[in-house]
Amino acid sequence: MAFRGGRLKTDRIAGGTNTTGVDDEVFAMPSGMAIRYDRPAAALADYITGYHVYRTDTGIEAGQVDWFLPATANVRIAIDAGPIAVSIGRRTYDPLPVASLFGPTNQALKAVTHGGVMIGFGISALGWARLFRRSAGDFRNRIVPLEDVLGKAFTRDLVAGLQGAPDDAAVAPILDAMLLARLGPPHADAPQIRQLMEILATDGPTDIASAAAQLDIPTHALRRLSVRHFGFPPKMLLLRARFLRSFVRLMMAGGEADYTTIDRSYFDASHFLRDSATFLGMTPRRFMALTKPFLKASLRARNAVLGSPTQVLHDIAKAPARDAQSRDSSRTTQQRVISRDGSAIGC
Questions:
Q1: Could you tell me if 49 and 124 are in contact, meaning their C-beta atoms sit under 8 angstroms apart?
Q2: Domains and CATH numbers, the chain
């Protein structure tokens, strides 16, 4: 099954950002690939953690393999793309729907693609509370058709709008308009959700009692809040954030794994390795040796544009929102050819 059609084609994806002051080299990719990260509108900054666009012209026949880290919930839309298979743990989704909701995950994700464009946006816990009626826990480590949770009409309009985009610089304005119109009213839990998001984004204790004390709620209320809006019990959220803070440092440093940089709350390297088995299903060295061009590029590009390298570590207190100046700048950044495969990209 292939997902081909619409105006937005791979040769219209240049890569880059709507954000001023970000070096073009941040978005450099191997031949045949491009990556883009954009900030959402200021009114969405608490709810949407960022927009991304991936393009690849490689692996069309044999399939290209990429690995990704555990993440918060996100939506992904395949445009002008061949078949896509995604595995989370032992469960494989093949073929992936054109528009999918990826629930929050605590396991690494493996994707096999056959060329095309993938557009996505991350959803914070505050965003989940305003976009979805069901508990995030119902979707942990799962992928479902987007129409099952946001309805057929919205999904149809979303896909059609993105297919009709003239290029990747138009993606952010399209998503801004549709998501602003879709947001429900603020949730009664919003103050506590925000506090827990801030706790997860910073170094600190990983015990539930400390987190509950900071939120000034009982531990059972913290568990309910965590599962409903974040998808996992609080202990799992705290451990996932601690592990990814440490592991991302190793990945971004490059070279051999240096366990002296891991979080100080780890007793020793073996403690860190146990968490690696939980969240990656393998050792850090083995994961770092895997083929993952888009993960490596996204850590770099996301950090430059959105202020943190991964969705799990996204800090809404520090994340920059798009203002009028950066919106205007999208008219110039859309002309930049970021991929090193310039001949394969039309602007």
A1: yes
A2: 10-185+321-339 (2.60.120.10), 190-289 (1.10.10.60)
